[in-house]
C-alpha cells in the first residue's frame, strides 16, 4: 500500500475572492515514528487531489495509510498513519495534523516516531493574520522522549486564490525536550532542555495539473539564548487524485538541529508514500 524511508501547520485554502500581492510585501504517544503526514486527498470531484476547505465552519478530515513488508534474506515491516483535519470560516481556521510511523527489522524496532500538531489562524484583514500553535513529538531514533513546542506570531498572505496560497509568518516559540537517555549538549549531561526561539516560516500549495497538487513548507528556528544554534525543517508533499476521495501521496521531510546531542546526527530525512482517504 505504500512505503517509508527515513535518512507540521498547513494553512487551508478558502473559497473566497482572489487576492494577489507582489513578493515585496509590507514589512505523542510512543509506539509509532519517523514520518510525516503527506496527504492531500480527494474530496470535491475526481479532478482534485485535496480535501476542499469550505469556509462553512464544518470539520473535514484526510486519513492516510502506508505499509510495506519484506521477507526472505531480511524481515522488515513498516506502517505509517496520518490525519489531517481542518475547520475553516472566512475569518479563521483551526487545523489538526497527526502522523506516526513504526518500522521493524528482524523483529527489532528500527524507527518509531509520532507527532501531533494543532494551529489556530485568525485573519485581521485580507492580507494579515495571527497564529498560535502547539505540537508534541516522540522520536525514539533521535533520543526524544517528548518534545513540546508552543508558538505565536503574525503572518502575511503573499498569494491566496480559491485553489492556491503562499504565506509567510514570523513569531516567538518555546520548546522543551525530554530525552530517553541523558545526552551531552554544550558540555553538560542533560536529561531535558528548553529553548526560546524565533520562528520564521513560509508555506505554499499549488496545482500542477487537474489531478496533482504540490505543497511545501519551510521553517527556521534560531535560538534566542545560544548564539549560532538553530533548528530547521523543510517539507514537500505531492498528492495525485485517483477518484473523488482517494489519492496517491508522497512526501519528503528533512529536519536539522545544530545540537541534537552527542552521538546523534544533526540531519534527519524521511520519505513516505501511501494512500489517502478524504472524509467530509
Beta-strand content bin: over 45%
Radius of gyration: 19 Å
Distance between the termini: 23 Å
Helix content: under 10%
Shape call: globular
Poorly predicted regions? 8-49
The biggest sheet, with number of strands, parallel, antiparallel or mixed sense and barrel status, is: 12 strands, antiparallel, barrel
Supply the helix-strand structural class. Answer: mainly beta
> Total number of β-strand segments?
14
Topology as a string of helices (H) and strands (E) = EEEEEEEEEEEEEE
Sequence of strands across the biggest β-sheet: 3-4-5-6-7-8-9-10-11-12-13-14
Global mean pLDDT: 80
The count of helical stretches stands at: 0
Walk me through what this model shows.
This protein has a twelve-stranded antiparallel barrel with strand order 3-4-5-6-7-8-9-10-11-12-13-14. Residues 8-49 have low confidence and may be disordered. 0% of the residues lie in helices and 64% in strands. It contains no helices and 14 strands.
In short:
With 280 residues, the protein is an all-beta fold. It is 0% helix and 64% strand. Strands 3-4-5-6-7-8-9-10-11-12-13-14 form a twelve-stranded antiparallel β-barrel.
Amino acid at each position: 500500500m505504500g512505503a517509508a524511508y527515513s535518512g507540521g501547520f498547513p494553512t487551508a485554502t478558502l473559497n473566497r475572492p482572489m487576492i494577489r500581492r507582489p513578493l515585496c510585501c509590507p514589512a505523542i504517544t510512543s509506539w509509532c515514528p519517523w514520518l510525516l503526514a503527506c496527504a492531500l486527498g480527494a474530496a470535491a470531484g475526481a479532478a482534485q487531489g485535496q480535501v476542499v476547505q469550505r469556509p462553512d465552519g464544518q470539520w473535514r478530515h484526510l486519513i492516510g495509510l502506508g505499509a510495506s513488508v519484506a521477507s526472505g534474506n531480511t524481515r522488515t515491516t513498516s506502517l505509517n498513519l496520518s490525519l489531517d483535519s481542518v475547520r475553516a470560516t472566512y475569518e479563521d481556521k483551526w487545523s489538526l495534523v497527526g502522523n506516526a510511523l513504526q518500522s521493524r527489522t528482524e523483529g527489532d524496532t528500527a524507527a518509531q516516531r509520532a507527532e501531533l500538531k494543532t494551529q489556530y489562524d485568525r485573519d485581521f484583514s485580507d492580507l494579515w493574520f495571527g497564529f498560535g500553535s502547539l505540537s508534541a513529538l516522540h522520536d525514539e531514533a533521535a533520543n526524544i522522549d517528548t518534545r513540546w513546542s508552543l508558538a505565536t506570531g503574525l503572518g502575511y498572505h503573499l498569494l491566496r486564490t480559491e485553489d492556491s496560497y503562499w504565506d509567510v509568518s514570523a513569531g516567538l516559540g518555546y520548546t522543551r525536550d525530554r530525552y530517553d537517555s541523558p545526552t551531552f549538549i554544550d558540555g553538560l549531561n542533560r536529561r531535558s532542555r528548553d529553548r526560546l526561539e524565533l520562528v520564521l516560516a513560509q508555506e505554499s500549495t499549488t496545482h500542477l495539473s487537474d489531478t496533482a497538487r504540490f505543497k511545501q513548507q519551510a521553517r527556521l528556528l534560531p535560538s534566542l539564548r545560544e548564539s549560532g544554534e538553530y533548528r530547521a525543517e523543510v517539507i514537500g508533499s505531492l498528492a495525485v487524485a485517483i477518484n473523488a476521495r482517494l489519492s496517491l501521496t508522497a512526501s519528503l521531510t528533512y529536519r536539522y538541529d545544530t545540537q541534537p546531542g552527542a552521538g546523534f546526527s544533526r540531519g534527519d530525512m524521511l520519505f513516505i508514500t501511501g494512500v489517502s482517504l478524504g472524509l467530509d
